[in-house]
Amino acid sequence: MEEKIKSTLILILFFLCGSPLLASARDSNKNTLSGIYYFENEVETFSPCKSNKTYWAVGNSELIDQLRSKALEKNGISGVLYLQIQGRYIGSSKDDESYARDFDGYFKIEKINRIRVADRKDCRIIATD
Hints:
single chain; alpha+beta; five-stranded mixed β-barrel; 3 helices; 5 strands; 28% helix; globular; signal; NlpE C-terminal OB domain-containing protein; NlpE_C
């Protein structure tokens, strides 16, 4: 009986302290992530790899201008980039009166570690052809 209690306590501690899912939730305020950035006219989004979420991308104007310029290099109308960034979810966009309300919230891109034109082998890429 005592062994069963120990095993149960170990499992509880694992799930409370050591579970990757809970660690991810604890660290979700600010992460280093890779994902797909999409820019076209009035739409600017970030979709983290291994996620089914697409967020409205925000950040300081210098950083956002850098992303937009790189995204528009290929055709001048729209672009898809693969990013490795530091950033965080900053809240819901459901009450916004802009296109942002159609997405899973706001994601603030705080630092770009890597940026390049997205390739079809990248995570969750959108067909743009």
